[in-house]
Amino acid sequence: MATQGISSVEVMIELRKLRYLIAAAEAGSFSRAARNLNIKQSTLSRHILGIEQRLGMTLFDRRTRGATLTTNGRIYLRTAQLIVTEFEELNGWVRATQKGETGRLAVGFYTSFSAGNLRATVAEFSERFPGVTVRGFERNRDKLLAGIESGLLDIIIIIGERPYPGIESRSLWSERHLVVMPEGHPLASYESIYWQDLVGERFLLTERDPGPETRNLLLGKLGSPGYMPEIDMDDVGRDTVISSIALGDRLAIFAESSAGIQVPGVLFREIHEANGHSRIGYSGYWRDDNQNPILRRFLDFVATRYSLPSGSRPRTAQISGREPS
Q1: Which residues contact 197 (CB under 8 A, 6 or more apart)?
Q2: Which pTM was predicted?
């Protein structure tokens, strides 16, 4: 059965309706929102009613004075605001690209930009090539991959090496693992901290990237028959995790790029292994059909900066889009 496509006109109409809904909710009144939008109140009311009829739910309580959202309306509003914001960001990126200005690179990441190799690399690249505009996008792994596949991002830089279909990848650099602890923690006085020193500790990680990968790391490094490390996973950002460490008896694990986040009462300590510092690798991923010459310039720059083999061939995935188990 053929799938009927949605035209750009239909998309614009739907976005306009979402903007009407958002305006009504923010103004607290259909009439005030209509004046702000310079349209008739009947037009705004008709479009909002159309949304409700299509959804099969009531978004505004019309028994009260003004525009009062129902419970479903508040939930839908948050989604509508996200859609409109993302679309405006997308349009802004497209307009900037269509100006014909050369030298733009869209870089996606989920690591900290407060310190570390990503920050240093982008800063040096921008200094070396002042005619290039580098735009950074911090998203989770799924959104970064979607950005690569859609062409909105030129390259994403994430932890580890995982193959994806139609996407080339290359190891870029590595960073040291750091344990984050309260300044009064007994380990703070250790000259060197090894993974085995962390056995018996309780950890706090973010559910967001790279929290799941860090959890797997801890299970691999500390887990043993009869013992599993105690790991709390919260839906909070990196800064909140680090701030929370100062308040209790938990530790966190991050790459050294997070050391630029300075929080009173918190210490960062390097983790060692038998052969030196414990490190985590970062890789770059990009579409194999990306023709942006700035991407090639950036990859060459990184290879030179980190003394990567100039003849190293990028890897191209040939498996399904699911992450390997």
Answers
A1: 187, 190
A2: 0.61
Of 162, 157, 197, nearest to 177 by C-alpha is 197
CA pair distance 171, 315, nearest whole angstrom: 9
For the segment 197-238, what is each residue's pLDDT rounded down to a tens digit?
Answer: 999 999 999 999 889 999 999 999 999 998 999 999 999 988
Residue (of 11, 43, 44) closest to 26 by Cα position: 44
CA distances from 298 to 132, 146, 178 (A): 10, 21, 28
**For 270-292, what is each residue's pLDDT tens digit?**
999 988 999 999 999 999 999 88
The single residue listed with the structure tokens 């496509």 is: 5
Dihedral, 10, 13, 19, 25 alpha carbons, nearest 10 = -100
Angstrom CA distances, 248 to 90, 189, 202, stand at 41, 18, 10
